[in-house]
Amino acid sequence: MPRFRFRRLLAATALAAGLALPVAAPAQVRLKDIVTIEGVRGNQLVGYGLVIGLQGTGDQLRNNPFTQQSLTAMLERMGVNVADQRVQTRNTAAVIVTATLPPFARQGTPMDVTVSSLGDARSLNGGTLVATPLMGADGEAYAVAQGPVVVGGFAAAGQAQSVSSGVTTAGRVPSGGLVEREVPHAMRDLDNVRLALRAPDFTTALRIEEVVNAKFGPGSAQALDLGTVQLRVPPAFRDRLPFLMAQVENLTVRPETPARVVVDERTGTIVVGADVRVDPVAITHGNLVIRITETPQVSQPNPFSNGETTVVPRTNIEVDDQRGRRLAVLPRANTLQSLVNGLNALGLAPRDLIAVLNALKASGALHAELTFI
């Protein structure tokens, strides 16, 4: 059989058993895809505001006093005194506004914000967010958000039926936030730059050190631990650090991936890493299957009798404990292909295979990390 046909058949067999099978070796990836620069990060912002213009789907003011207080305070700032009035509008909703301030964002930089209902509003569809300051962890306002709210879900209801899809009490304001305060960060004053691995690993850190030293000379990079590589800024790049980082982040390296089996019990999905190994073991797995079938019958009385027509229940119960299943031998699996072939030979469904993987891990035959999500 041609090699490419064998790989297609193997991948199809793995997918049928719920296994995701990589058929190629780990490729070279750019450093920008596996590391982050220490100190170059976003900052989370949060604010409290009001969404107006709703079609009767806002908060009930009598049940949400904070919405009424916010509405009254906003109107008073605009010269409208409603302190002694009883406002009954349903077109306003109190919301929490969240956003992430991008690194090195300058004044006037737009950004997307997320709006989430705080009260009992039924929908934010068609609403407009009123100017809301967004504050950081230090209590300072770094941005202001305002604009129409875009809601992904919808809801429609009648007297006897209702239809809904998605979430209507949360939405986004595209480019609705404007940066008002900048976060100071001077990269030109740095003598060393630290690269933080997204997936910490000693082997990957040493490979990054070797690649950077091969590009910029010995001693340019040093792996401090499994998650950090320190880069010494050469004197020629002191005033051109962005140019240096552009060259560093485009260097390629082959990351080391741990032997891991990821299991999602809710969907029955199993993902097996390429470095997973299994020792020879004998496996038997059987399920107790109980089938209950209801076949009610109608009992009809004879003509001109005093009886009544009744429904007589009839229940049929079948029990199958699969006693005919024999003991299966799983041979040593030194490659991912042999492991998938051995597991598929057991003829188990994905959810039964999860139980077998648990037993293999407990017996010590499975040499991999078993992770449940």
Automatic annotation (TrEMBL):
InterPro entries: Flag_FlgI (IPR001782). Keywords: Bacterial flagellum, Cell projection, Cilium, Flagellum, Periplasm, Signal. It comes from the Bacteria. Residues 1-27 form the signal peptide. Assembles around the rod to form the L-ring and probably protects the motor/basal body from shearing forces during rotation. HAMAP family: FlgI. Belongs to the FlgI family. The basal body constitutes a major portion of the flagellar organelle and consists of four rings (L,P,S, and M) mounted on a central rod. This is Flagellar P-ring protein. The gene is flgI.
